[in-house]
Amino acid sequence: MAIIWHTYPLNNNDCPPTMFYATLKTLHLLSIIVWIGGMVFVQFFLRPALLALEAPERVRLMHAVLGRFFNAVLVAAGLTLFSGVWMIGRMARQMVQAGVKFNMPLEWMVMALLGLVMVLIFGHIRFVLYKRLARAVTAAAWPAGGAALASIRTWVMVNLWIGVLIVVLTLMGASS
Cα separation of 77 and 93, whole Å? Predict the structure, then answer.
């Protein structure tokens, strides 16, 4: 998850971003909004509301909701990675073409590194923990399903905090 909020102009005569760049930046930000917003919704609104349900219904419903959400996050994470790498590459290429050495700003490096950590954590959630949840639902093993959901919740909170940290650090870097 790499948020590129601004670019560093090479000189005052730089032309405005291309439509492709603007589209990628928009997709980048929308993908991040879907990812972080979805984590907030599930953690702070859906999960507490589901406590009114019995364990079998709660586990089945969370399995269905998370399956849909994780599919959306797969797309969002892919778009975020692709667009972030492309925007950084575009900036590096422009600077090199202008004869200027490209030094990636610190907040971009932090954003890229933490974004990759988020993708790795998501991969663990989606391809290990969610599969554990799916097996528990198939076997009607509700305590195992609850344990899988607890693990998912823990790692989603880690990713949520990292995502918020990235946004804060990026905004602080953009304002300096």
Answer: 24
Instruction: Give the mean pLDDT per block of 10 residues along the chain (176 residues).
Output: 46 60 93 98 97 97 98 97 94 92 91 97 98 98 98 98 95 73
- Domain definitions of the chain by residue range: 19-175
pTM of the model: 0.86
Residue type at 159 in one-letter notation: N
Q: What is the separation of C-alpha 113 from the centre of its chain, rounded to a whole number of angstroms?
A: 12
**What's the residue count for the chain?**
176
CA 90, CA 14: separation in Å to the nearest integer?
Answer: 13
